[in-house]
TrEMBL record:
Gene3D superfamilies in the record: alpha/beta hydrolase
Amino-acid biosynthesis among keywords: no
Name under which the protein is recorded: Alpha/beta hydrolase
Keyword set, alphabetical order: Hydrolase
Protein origin, superkingdom: Bacteria
This protein's GO CC annotations: membrane
InterPro entries: AB_hydrolase_1, AB_hydrolase_fold, AB_hydrolase_sf
A Pfam family that the UniProt record links to this protein: Abhydrolase_1
Annotated ranges, domain AB hydrolase-1: 31-146
Keyword Transport among UniProt keywords: no
UniProt GO molecular function: hydrolase activity
Length: 262
């Protein structure tokens, strides 16, 4: 199958949002919209979107959230409700500009939480939810993992890794992530704050060696579901299953979405 890519800047009242669509020629099938992680962007999905598009025979769409990648700077007002804000405030104009009525929400890490929030808030339009290494609450392993990453980024040259993809927004991105998750005010957060319930088919993927979250996270995410719920727990896998075990992850997603919409 030939997949073509289409890059667009989507104008919104908060600034231009960069998006990329991997087109398969199967426009009648519900596309998959990707939500990136706390330090991520379109480019950091690497070859996963194209491979996913080929195997599922569906268009795949990714965008850089405001403040990330090639999108405009975040307009401010960042708070502990940033996940809900993405679903209710920043996603709608992107969704409208993409001219997509129905979608499958797929997110990695915090993007998985955001995808769950989309599924919860737009149940008539979100046909399915797929989370990869998403967190459901703040546990000691989460905090320890973030502190280790904070220490690593303090090493000379490490921040340049983020600047390669985010430019002068890199430092804001790093500290927005660290300060939010390590703050005392965020310690009581749970995914139910962002996604009280999910009525669409739900697939939760999680590595058993995930350095940011134990197996309790996919279990709690699965408990949100009131429809068909599936879990894929991967041995010997850490926080990036779609990069560590891509073939299994992509094939599991294909089977899941085909069962929903052949």
């Amino acid at each position: 199958m030939t997949v073509t890519t289409e890059d667009r800047y989507l104008p919104t009242e908060h600034g231009d949002v960069f998006s990329r669509r991997w087109r398969t020629g199967h426009s009648q099938r519900t596309p998959i919209i990707l939500m990136h992680d706390s330090l991520g962007c379109v480019e950091l999905w690497r070859d996963f979107p194209e491979r996913l598009a080929v195997v599922t025979e569906r268009d795949v769409i990714a965008y850089d959230r405001l403040g990330f990648g090639r999108s405009a700077a975040h307009p401010g007002g960042w708070s502990n409700s940033f996940i809900r804000d993405e679903a209710l405030k920043f996603f709608p104009p992107v969704w409208q500009a993409l001219d997509v009525e129905h979608f499958i929400a797929l997110g990695h890490s915090v993007g998985g939480i955001m995808a769950a929030s989309l599924a919860a808030h737009y149940p008539r339009n979100c046909r399915a939810l797929i989370t990869i290494a998403a967190l459901a609450f703040v546990e000691d392993r989460t905090l320890q993992g973030i502190r280790r990453t904070q220490t690593a980024f303090a090493e000379p040259g490490q921040l340049e890794r983020l600047r390669k993809y985010h430019g002068d927004k890199a430092e804001w991105i790093l500290w927005a992530w660290i300060d939010t998750w390590l703050s005392e005010s965020y310690a009581s957060w749970t995914i139910k704050d962002s996604a009280p319930a999910v009525n669409t088919p739900l697939l939760a993927i999680h590595g058993l060696e995930d350095e940011y979250g134990s197996v309790a996270h996919p279990q709690q995410i699965a408990a949100l579901g009131t429809n068909r719920v599936e879990k894929l727990l991967l041995k010997g896998c850490q926080h990036v299953p779609h990069r560590e075990q891509p073939e299994l992850v992509i094939e599991t997603i294909r089977v899941f979405v085909d069962a929903m919409e052949p």
